[in-house]
């Protein structure tokens, strides 16, 4: 069994941390044994459409609209038009689609991949995360979740990658943009107090994972089982 924690170039993502929090045994299957499993056609189709939407959104913000015409899916093109109305290309704004931040300091090893980062006038930063699934998210679902905490933490710590001449960050927020629920986009504000809380929270999770013993770990029923792709593997009748 390969222990990825001992690899010098390994960085945790919000997905890997959330997996451990939901079920350490699933973390072991996925990140130590490299198992990925899904026999649900609906789930696979949802991932495919999500990936395609991210691709055409990236092309739009990269100024590659001529390549968007290759997409023949009218629903995806409609979703893109809605996105363009909400976040059009504006003079004086800067756009960073599919932007990646790597961080390895003070025992915190993180990798974040952002759907879109906007730089607005007066150095206001806005993270826009695309959610393409049908389930309507509410603020209570995302305000304190790992993705929100990690994405805001990483950008706060590394704002100089985008704001090269800024002495410190002033305004930063994160928006969950829901393609299937356009009237329900969620904005999360951020400040220094939240940042310090998040830093402690993230570091605590990592310390827990780093010291956790996966040797001889037995599977056990948890609430996550009902939505886990490994459920039929772990609990064959």
The CATH class turns out to be Alpha Beta
Q: Let me know the number of strands.
A: 5
Class from helix and strand fractions: alpha+beta
Rg (C-alpha, Å): 19 Å
Q: Secondary-structure element sequence?
A: HHHHEEEHHEEHH
Pfam family, one: PDDEXK_1
Protein name: PD-(D/E)XK endonuclease-like domain-containing protein
Domain PD-(D/E)XK endonuclease-like: 13-72, 96-234
Organism: Propionigenium maris DSM 9537
Secondary structure topology:
Layout: H1 14-22, H2 24-32, H3 41-61, H4 74-86, E1 94-105, E2 108-120, E3 124-131, H5 139-142, H6 146-157, E4 171-178, E5 186-189, H7 192-211, H8 231-234
Helix pairs in contact: 1-2, 1-6, 3-4, 6-7
Could you please describe the fold and organization of this structure?
- There is one protein chain.
- Strands 1-2-3-4-5 form a five-stranded mixed beta sheet, sandwiched between helices.
- The model has no long low-confidence stretch (mean pLDDT 89).
- The relative contact order is 0.16.
- The longest helix is centred in the N-terminal third of the chain and has 21 residues, at 41-61.
- 39% of the residues lie in helices and 19% in strands.
- A hairpin with a 2-residue loop joins strand 1 (94-105) and strand 2.
- The protein has eight helices and five strands.
- It has helices spanning 14-22, 24-32, 41-61, 74-86, 139-142, 146-157, 192-211, 231-234; strands spanning 94-105, 108-120, 124-131, 171-178, 186-189.
- Helix 3 crosses helix 4.
- The two termini are 26 Å apart.
- It has a single domain (11-234), classed as Alpha-Beta Complex (Lambda Exonuclease, Chain A).
- It has 237 residues and is α+β, with helices and mostly antiparallel strands.
């Amino acid at each position: 069994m390969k222990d990825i924690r001992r690899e010098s170039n390994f960085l945790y993502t919000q997905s890997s941390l959330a997996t451990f929090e939901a079920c350490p045994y699933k973390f072991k299957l996925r990140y130590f044994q490299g198992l990925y499993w899904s026999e649900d056609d609906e789930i696979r189709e949802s991932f495919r459409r999500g990936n395609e939407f991210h691709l055409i959104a990236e092309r739009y913000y990269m100024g590659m609209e001529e390549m968007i015409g290759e997409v023949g899916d009218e629903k995806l093109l409609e979703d893109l038009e809605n996105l363009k109305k909400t976040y059009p290309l504006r003079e004086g704004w800067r756009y960073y689609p599919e932007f990646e931040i790597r961080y390895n300091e003070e025992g915190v090893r993180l990798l974040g991949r952002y759907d879109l980062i906007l730089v607005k006038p007066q150095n206001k930063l806005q993270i826009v995360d695309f959610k393409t699934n049908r389930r309507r998210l509410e603020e209570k679902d995302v305000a304190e979740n790992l993705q929100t905490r990690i994405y805001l933490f990483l950008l706060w710590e590394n704002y100089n990658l985008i704001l090269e001449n800024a002495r410190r960050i002033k305004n930063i927020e994160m928006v969950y943009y829901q393609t299937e629920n356009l009237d329900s986009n969620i904005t999360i504000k951020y400040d220094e107090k939240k940042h310090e809380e998040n830093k402690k929270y993230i570091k605590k999770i990592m310390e827990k994972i780093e010291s956790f013993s996966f040797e001889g770990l037995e599977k056990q029923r948890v609430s996550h089982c009902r939505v886990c792709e490994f459920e039929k593997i772990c609990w064959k009748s």
